[in-house]
Structures are given as C-alpha cells and as structure tokens.
Design brief:
Blueprint (H helix, E strand, L loop, with lengths): L2 H20 L12 H23 L37 H8 L8 H6 L21 E2 L2 H10 L10 E9 L5 E7 L8 E9 L10 E14 L6 E12 L9
Parallel strand pairs: 1-2, 4-6
Antiparallel strand pairs: 2-3, 2-5, 3-4, 5-6
Pfam families: DUF1980_C
Protein name: TIGR03943 family protein
Organism: Micromonospora endophytica
Length: 250
Amino acid sequence: MNRQAQAVVLLLLGGAVLRASVTDLYLRYVKEGLRPFLIAAGLLLVVAAIMTLWYELRPALTDDPAAVPADEPDTGHGGHGGHGHHEPRVGWLLILPVLGLLLVAPPALGSYAASQAGTALSTPARSDYPPLPAGDPVSVSVLDYAARALFDRGTSIGDRRVRLTGFITTGPDRQPMLARMVLSCCAADGRPVKLGLSGDVPTGLPDDSWVEVVGRYSERLGRDPVNDAEIPYLDVESWRQVPVPKRQYD
C-alpha cells in the first residue's frame, strides 16, 4: 500500500466516523456524551488524509533540474534509483472498519448480550436515594429502579407507580424479563441490568421487543445464573409495546 492509497483509506475512515457521529448511528457504539470527541477524531482523520494527498500529488521537487544534487545522477525515478517504498500490506486492514461503518449497521446490544453477561448491579451498596419526582406513574430508568430496589430495598420507591422502558429477554426460567444495557464508555464494556417481572407479564413477544411497563415495587428477588447476583422484580400492572428508542443504552 503506497502513501496515496493510505491517504484514501484514511479519508474514507474519517468520513465514516463523521457520518456515524452526525447521525444517531454512533449511539450503537458509544455513550451520547462522546459525540464531540468522535466528530473531532473524524475531522482530524480527514484533514490528515487531505494533507497527505496534497503532499503526494503536488509537483515533485525533482522536476526542477536545479533540485537534483550535482553528485547524484537523475535516474528519472524520484532520486531513488527506481526502488520505490513498499508499505506493509497490513495497512489494508484499515478498510475493514470503513466497510463496517459504511456498509454494515450492526444493531445495538440486546437480549443475546444480556443473556451472556451477569447483571451489572452485583456489588452490595448503601446509599440514600432522593425521593422520586412527582407524577403518577413516574418515569424512571431500569438502572435507577433496580438500584433502589436492591440497595435500599424499595424504601425510596414506596408504593409509587413507576414507568420503565426496556427490551424483553428470556430469563433462566424461560419467563420474560425486562433489561437495559448500561455503558461505561462504549459497547465493548456494555453490561445488562435485568428485572424480573410478575403480575401482568408481557407475553407473546420475541426477545429484543421493546416495551413500556407500569408497575410497583416488589420484594421478590431472583438470582442471575451468570454471576449469581440478585435480580429485583417489578410487579407489572400494565404494559405496551413501543418502538425502539433512539437512545437504547442507560
């Protein structure tokens, strides 16, 4: 791979990063707050590629006879005696992430990833949670509900009705569970937060279906077979299927 080919691949890679960053596609890979850094990285790649192409395609200095040293014969091959530089072929591997971003759009982490990893709330903790905001039902994230249900045993929830949105995944007892993936940085470190469901459990839906459930705190606890962590339950009063949200990660 010569310098010009490297620059073209770099330009495509930078363009692919920018395309993902200015659309919602990047939300499948990283947290929302990383968008400015992705845009900056994409711009740097594009600028570097353009500068490399300009440097390689500009008129060669050897076109000027005065630029050729007197003690070095002009071979007609850029002063290198006909021996060009050959860059490592491994550079072509850079085209793979470009194709991945431009041609393939893998889905966000879902039920399969949730079934292969233990629930993220596996470390006991003590914390004073603030009261839930006003509203009936009050909208909370799957992570917030699970933390309140586990770490203060629902004290901060009380008898309030809560509304949660997540995707369906099949639990170890073959019953549907509600889950949401949480990220520390990017999809590579994604971990699921899982909730057991009782009461009016969503039925007849395939895994990865997104639902909105309304219910109340349940004292029931289960165990995650992957890491033996406690899984809180939600007593569902009603539910409805909803479209896949733009932000799929908590």
